[in-house]
Amino acid sequence: MTVEEYNQAVNLYADGVFRFVLKNIKDQEKARDIVQDSFEKLWMHKRTVDSAKIKSYLFSTAYHRTIDVIRKDQRQKRYDDLQLPDEGHNQQYSDIGEVLNQAIRLLPEDQRSVLMLRDYEGYSYKEISELTALNESQVKVYIYRARVFLKNYIGKLDVLV
């Protein structure tokens, strides 16, 4: 990889990596640090990284670094241990985005990450499995469980409207 390719990668992918990390950890300073670490790692391995796989390398690096930060900051929550009210989310809201973001924050980190990669960044199941070092079946299961949780949490759509 040349310096020009690296600079182009910064211009093309920095915002996307930042959005992905920020959506997972909700802390701008930590997200900036993770993005910086990812690009630093790319620069250090510039001779070995294929220019066609720069985006994948950056998202994979950012994903693993995000997981490390989350594990350091708090203990993992298990999906089965999560206590939800039986009635779901029944307060009146005019902003579905606020309710959705609140529900996403309650997801376990693995489910949240694969859901973000799939639904927000548009990666395929195969690409997500490569980025996260999970097999494709695990990715599908995590996404399914996350979507079921979101559906149950949000409840009926007429509550939101």
Q: Give the CA-CA distance, first to last residue.
A: 51 Å
Shape: globular
Radius of gyration, taken over Cα atoms and rounded to an integer in Å? 17 Å
Order of helices and strands: HHHHHHHH
- Mean pLDDT over the residues: 81
- What oligomeric assembly is this protein in? single chain
Number of helices: 8
Percent range for helical residues?
over 70%
Counting DSSP E segments of at least 2 residues, the number of strands comes to: 0
Structural classification: mainly alpha
**Largest beta sheet, briefly?**
none
Strand share of the residues? under 5%
Give start-end ranges of low-pLDDT stretches.
Answer: none
Describe the structure.
It is built from eight helices and no strands. It is mostly helical and 161 residues long. The model has no long low-confidence stretch (mean pLDDT 81).
Keywords:
161 residues; mainly alpha; 8 helices; 0% strand; globular
In a nutshell, what does this entry contain?
With 161 residues, this protein is mostly helical. It contains 8 helices and no strands.
Fold topology:
Elements: H1 3-25, H2 28-44, H3 54-73, H4 96-105, H5 109-120, H6 125-132, H7 136-154, H8 157-160
Helix pairs in contact: 1-2, 1-3, 2-3, 3-6, 4-7, 5-7, 6-7
